[in-house]
Amino acid sequence: MLKIVVCGTAGRMGREIISAAQKDNGIKVIAGVEEKANAFVGKKIEDVPVFDDILKVIEKSDAVIEFTSSKATMENLKKTAKFRKPYCIGTTGFTEKEIKQIKMFAKKIPIFLSPNMSVGVNHLFNLVKNTVEILPEYDIEIVETHHRMKKDAPSGTALKIANVIKRIRPDVKFIYGRQGLKGERTKNEICINAVRGGDVVGEHRILFLGQGEFLELRHYATSRQCFAWGTIQAVKFLAKQGPGLYSMEDLLKNIYAKIH
Q: Can you tell me the distance from the alpha carbon of 228 to that of 82, in angstroms, rounded to the nearest whole number?
C-alpha cells in the first residue's frame, strides 16, 4: 500500500485525487496539507486529516502529490528534499528559475512534473508531433478554453503543445491573440488563443489548416477525474523510480510497452 500526502487537499484537484485513491487498492492518502489560514486545517476531508505543514506528515508517507501554487510547491520541496520522498507535481505556472530549481532537486529525488496529468491529453502531444511531421506546410493555430477561475494563461498544456511543435519546426514564432490591421498571417506564425469563462474544466484544440481543408485535434476534459486518475498512475510509476525528472512522456512509454 503506497501512502500518499496530498498538498492542496481542499482544492478541486485535491478532492478528486482523494476520491480516485479510494477506488485504488494500491494507494492510500494518509494526510493532506493546506496553508495555515485554510478552514480545513485541523479537520478532515473524506477521512483524510488536514495539516498546515508538510513536515508534520512527511516521514510517515511514501510519496507526495502537489497541486498548489508555484510558490507553495517550491517551499514544500525545499522543506522535504532531505527526506528523499518521490514528489509528483501537477502545479503549473513555474518560472524558468523555479524549473531549474526543480531539476536540481531531481538529482537527489524522483520528481514527476507535468502541466497536465491526463493520460489522454498527453497522448494528444504524440498525435500533434506526428501530425506536424506529416503536414509540415500546414498553418497551425492553438485554442485553449478553461473556467473563469484559472489564473495563468496560456495554460501549461497549451505551452507544452507549443513546445512539441517548436521541436519539429524551430522557425515558428508564437503570438498571443490578434488585434488591429496586422497584415497577412506569416508562414511561420502560430497564435495561441486563451479563452476563459464558465466552468469549463479544460479544452485544447490544435488546428492544421491547409489548402481546401483543415484537420483538428481536440481534447476535452469533461471532469477532473481524468487528471486525478492520471495522477494516481503517475505517483505509482514514480514510486518505482530512482532520482531524476520524469514526465507523462515516461509514463506513456511504460503504458505503450505493456500494450505492445
A: 27
pLDDT range class, residue 158, cuts 50, 70, 90: very high
pLDDT of residue 97: 96
What span, in angstroms and rounded, lies between the C-alpha atoms of 145 and 143? 7
- Pick left, alpha or beta for residue 172 (phi over 0 → left; psi -120 to 50 → alpha; otherwise beta): beta
Which residue is it, cell 500518499?
4
Instruction: Report pLDDT digits (tens) over 11-63.
Output: 999 999 999 999 999 999 999 999 999 999 999 999 999 999 999 999 999 99
Query: What is the phi/psi pair of residue 4, to 5°?
Result: -120, 145
Residues whose CB is less than 8 angstroms from the CB of residue 236 and which lie 6 or more positions away in sequence, other chains included: 2, 26, 27
Give the integer Cα–Cα distance in Å for 168 and 77. Answer: 33
What residues act catalytically?
146, 150
Distances in Å between the Cα of 48 and the Cα atoms of 60, 63, 109, 127, 235 are 14, 15, 26, 38, 18
Distance CA 232, CA 27 (A): 8
Instruction: Band the pLDDT of 260: cuts 50, 70, 90.
Output: low
Q: Do residues 117 and 247 make contact, with C-beta atoms less than 8 angstroms apart?
A: no
Separation CA 178–CA 81 (nearest Å)? 43
Q: Over the stretch 126-151, which tens digit does the pLDDT of each residue have?
A: 999 999 999 999 999 999 999 999 98
Q: How far apart are CA 113 and CA 80, in angstroms?
A: 16
